[in-house]
Amino acid sequence: xxxxxxxxxxxxxxxxxxxxxxxxxxxxxxxxxxxxxxxxxxxxxxxxxxxxxxxxxxxxxxxxxxxxxxxxxxxxxxxxxxxxxxxxxxxxxxxxxxxxxxxxxxxxxxxxxxxxxxxxxxxxxxxxxxxxxxxxxxxxxxxxxxxxxxxxxxxxxxxxxxxxxxxxxxxxxxxxxxxxxxxxxxx
Length: 187
What we know:
disordered N terminus; seven-stranded mixed β-sheet; 5 helices; about 190 residues; alpha+beta
């Protein structure tokens, strides 16, 4: 017989669009990763106002910003941004997925990334890039591989955080028809 805690731990997260009221919890999750981890190369956590600005920028570009909840509590979030600013990259996206402290290994990241991919495939985008901080981040690399990403390269010693050099792992996944056809004419 499962305890209530075990049941909550195995419950699938509910994925929704993140709303403005979620951004305090989003900021707290991100601040933990900035302070303790290597997934983000930011060294100081942004303010709530900055996180609200970033979310608004994502939404203005017609991209998804998602939240994961278990029993009503926000336990993770994910969003897509343009991979690069130059126009030739306009069909390529970069994904970001963060899970709250103590919630790893419960399928939250997988649920968020799967939903993010599905949402992005409904748009005009053809490639999704994962820029993973730290080549030792086996969990994130496995998560992306599970969702159809393939390793395309490692940039060694490109970040300096927490007193050590950190690699960046690049993984890529096609969205929809990927590079098999040209997108329709237009922006």
